[in-house]
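Bug #77: duplicate submission created two jobs. Keeping one. Sequence:
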Amino acid sequence: MATSSRSQRYQHGRDTPLAYLITFRTYATWLPGDERGTVDNRHNIPGTPLLPANPKRKDAYAAGSRSHVAELTPTRRDAVLLAITETCQHREWEIHAVSVRSNHVHIVMSGMQEPEQIMTTLKAYATRRLRELGLAAPDARIWSRHGSTKYLWDLDGIRDACAYVLDAQDVAR
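Kept job's structure:
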């Protein structure tokens, strides 16, 4: 996938990315120490290896979780998708591709805000919709802290990110 950090912006001849690939997970579905690998505040440089599996660390985080694992059932996924779509329409953010999965959300979109703020807004509106529909308890944690935000500087980057979001989600890696 063709993405690059903000520090490389002038290399692409523009000051503002064309779009973002934003990914966020549901609460407690990928804990530190998970066998899929994780990052932490000291090990989070793009392109470097993930931290290896650590079952004791994962168990410690699971024991300290303040809520149950938040899985998105098909009904919850539909509600989250609708909340994202409506929020983007209201804010005049353009959706290029979106996929709401059982434990995470991917969205390729363009907007005139920082992607971290966009992600926070989308999580808030999706949570509110789930609670309004009685699909989440008032005190349930739905989303993990933060997520991933990748800057897409050109049309190839947008195309590759859309292909990943729409076509590569069920491909074994």
